[in-house]
Write a structure and sequence with these properties.
alpha+beta; six-stranded antiparallel sheet; five-stranded antiparallel sheet; 33% helix; disordered C terminus
């Protein structure tokens, strides 16, 4: 019969990343993009003076510690991840090496946009060689250089996007809806207000039975007045208390993400295609 034959050849184009399907798709890349959607949510927001990364940490079980989500790359730049943590460690070491080499050769810090371009090129090498697989991790890169603060999104497909604000990971559509509704407020925010927006956006990604707290939250800030700094413990609790006070009835104005049309607030970098919304 025809049914077993069709079933047998349904996935004949996803055996490796170098095989194109008749529709012009690389299935292995799409599977890597799905791995990013399985990771816990991360949010990046920037104003005219600072960039903020906020992410949810997961613990594999009650007996283990929370997994690391944020990596400092240099004094002026860091990343938060969604997806495979092991892949993120490899990429973070690569980025740290690039920053050190540039500092050693030119005695200046590597510009954030150039760092993201180098990472994109590294990711792309894994998509054109037989026997390799794409990196199964998405990155939000926050940095500050001579051009001001930056938020970049880097995908496993090696596309990268210069963003005003962005959210990646599981249930991140709710956070993107919040970011889109408040996008015009971000440029003029001070640090505390910017952190408040990022935490409220991140809180929308949580299941109803889980609360945002100092244990499952990771927060990092970079700007002209401070190096890339990651906060924890009592410092985080202060920010969490502030968002409960400032939120008021703001949550009631945010519709359910399941009824919203998918959207993306990312601005594509030069030569890059627009990102796919979840």
């Amino acid at each position: 019969s025809l049914i077993p034959i069709c079933t047998m050849f349904r996935n004949q184009y996803d055996n490796d990343v170098t095989t194109w399907s008749p529709e012009g798709r690389l299935h292995q890349l799409e599977y890597a993009m799905e791995a990013v959607k399985q990771g816990s949510a991360s949010v990046g927001v920037k104003s005219k003076t600072h960039a903020v990364l906020a992410s949810l940490k997961r613990a594999p079980s009650e007996l283990s510690a929370y997994q690391k989500k944020t990596y400092q790359i240099d004094d002026h730049v860091g990343i938060t991840i969604a997806g495979l943590t092991a892949d993120a460690r490899t990429l973070s070491k690569f980025m740290q090496t690039e920053c050190m080499n540039h500092k050693y050769a030119y005695d200046v810090q590597l510009p954030v946009s150039r760092l993201v371009t180098v990472v994109g090129n590294r990711l792309q090498r894994s998509t054109i060689g037989y026997g390799r697989r794409p990196f199964g991790v998405g990155l939000l890169v926050a940095g500050y250089d001579a051009r001001g603060p930056h938020i970049f999104q880097v995908e496993p497909s090696s596309n990268f996007f210069n963003c005003k604000a962005q959210a990646i990971g599981a249930r991140s559509q709710s956070a993107r809806t919040y970011l889109e509704r408040n996008l015009d407020k971000f440029p003029s925010c001070n640090v505390d207000e910017l952190v408040g927006h990022s935490l409220r956006a991140l809180r929308d990604c949580l299941p109803t039975e889980v609360e945002l707290n100092a244990k499952n939250l990771c927060l990092s800030i970079v700007g002209g007045d401070r190096d890339f700094t990651t906060y924890s413990g009592v410092e985080l609790q202060t920010y969490l208390d502030n968002i409960d006070v400032d939120a008021g009835g703001m949550e009631e104005d945010i519709p359910n993400a399941a009824t919203d049309a998918p959207a993306s607030d990312a601005t594509p970098a030069d030569g890059a295609a627009a990102p796919m919304a979840e």
